[in-house]
UniProtKB/TrEMBL annotation:
UniProt keyword NAD present: no
Protein's UniProt name: DUF2254 domain-containing protein
Transmembrane domains' residue ranges: 12-38, 58-87, 108-127, 133-155
Entries under Pfam families matching the protein: DUF2254 (PF10011)
Alphabetical keyword list: Membrane, Transmembrane, Transmembrane helix
Length: 418
């Protein structure tokens, strides 16, 4: 198996452990080694005015205090993170926890505090009766100051993390950026309709959710085999081992080759943001549906989600979304990935919102206004799709037998259906 595949399939907990927090902590813990050499050569020379003038007993006390304070602050940091997780899962949505765990501020704070603790322990072990590494001890004091400053910043940061409006805005910005990158990346791959017949299949080697596919490698392999490949299920769908994973235009006779093609698709144990656009839309939908539930009843939060979705979809509605297909360098179709189209994005966003707003005229008006805004900038093809959603919204409300005055309020916000 290639090294890239091994890294991609590395358990997430191990991968996270070996990344930012651990690397920062280990880097800080290794600092006493070069500093000890500087101490041995320059502590009594030009660096003398800039180091602590301290005796061995006081140095032990200082380093012990720094180590104790650092590990206490580290415990406080993780306690606050767990509190944020609890509040976020209850008030915003549990699927945001994955994003919180990868928050750079949390990781940097844990790395600095853990590194300060390890640095102090290593420095204590370097103290001898005949030699006191004063520069190394002075740096421990600087790390203590840095830890306090970082802890203050961390507390301020986590206090804003659970502000729902800020989270909606952050998800919206990410969604808009992902759609923009998708449109720029896919524009050059847009080709004619797929006319291939996919009569053969390659089964999934494990059970889980369909994740990302190594597109460049899949195109290269398909060209070598003289076939076209189609992903049988869109990213995010659940598959059982043995179900159809890839569809091909010609049977792949070599079983090892077929297994390697199947391994190009990452099968994940849980849902993730490997398909960033759909995942972000689903996050906003989850927040809005949670806000509209009887236990929360926060229509304004749901309306904020609708506004964010409208902003994110504005560009593909205006310009259209390129076909998600991949060609080789000779412009022969080699890879088709279903599910990511403007209709799929609109359906993912507006069908749940329409159903959730059937008893809430205020929310239905917000959905109608969003459709009207999109219709004002939509291309001809997109306009037909928007009108379809507008018709479905009115049918849903009419079935609930709302007063005619309420229905007329929603109609005034809808785009023209003629």
């Amino acid at each position: 198996m290639r090294l890239r595949e091994q890294i991609r399939r590395m358990p997430q907990t191990i991968f996270v452990l070996l990344t930012m927090p651990a690397m920062i902590a280990l880097s800080i813990a290794a600092m006493p080694l070069p500093l000890y050499w500087i101490d041995s050569n320059y502590a009594e020379g030009i660096m003398s005015p800039f180091v602590l003038q301290i005796d061995p007993e006081s140095a032990h006390t200082l380093l012990s205090a720094v180590a104790t304070g650092a590990v206490t602050a580290l415990s406080l940091t993780y306690s606050l993170v767990l509190l944020v997780f609890t509040l976020a899962a209850g008030n915003i949505g549990p699927r945001l926890l994955r994003r919180f765990t990868t928050e750079p501020v949390n990781q940097v704070t844990a790395g600095i505090l853990g590194g300060t603790f390890l640095y102090s322990l290593v420095t204590i072990m370097m103290i001898r009766e005949d030699f006191l590494p004063k520069i190394t001890i002075s740096v421990a004091g600087f790390l203590a100051i840095l830890s306090v400053v970082q802890l203050i910043y961390f507390v301020r940061h986590v206090s804003t993390t659970v502000t729902i409006d800020d989270e909606i805005a952050a998800i919206s910005r990410k969604l808009f950026k992902d759609i923009e990158e998708l449109m720029d990346r896919d524009a050059k791959w847009d080709i004619a309709e797929d006319e291939h017949e996919y009569n053969y299949s390659i089964p999934a080697g494990k059970t889980g959710y369909v994740g990302h596919i190594d597109e460049l490698e899949a195109v290269r392999r398909a060209k070598e085999l003289g076939i076209a490949i189609r992903l049988a299920q869109p990213a995010g769908d659940y598959l059982l081992e043995g179900e159809k994973l890839l569809l091909t235009t010609r049977k792949v006779e070599d079983e090892n080759e077929a297994k390697e093609l199947a391994m190009l698709v990452n099968i994940e144990e849980s849902r993730s943001d490997s398909r960033n656009v759909e995942f972000s839309i689903n996050l906003l939908i989850e927040i809005s549906l949670r806000a509209l539930s009887p236990g929360v009843n926060d229509t304004y939060t749901a309306r904020a989600c609708v506004d964010s979705i409208t902003y994110a979809l504005s560009q593909p509605v205006r310009e259209g979304l390129p076909t998600y297909r991949r060609c080789d360098d000779e412009e022969n179709l080699r890879l088709v990935i279903p599910g990511l189209s403007l209709q799929a994005m609109m359906d993912t966003a507006f069908h749940p919102l329409r159903r959730a707003s059937r008893d809430n005229i205020m929310m239905a008006s917000a959905v109608a206004l969003a459709l009207d805004r999109l219709a004002a900038i939509a291309s001809k093809d997109s306009l037909l799709l928007i009108r379809t959603h507008a018709e479905l919204l009115m049918k849903t409300l009419e079935l609930e037998k709302h007063p005619e005055e309420d229905l007329e309020l929603v109609r005034r916000h809808l785009p023209s259906l003629s």
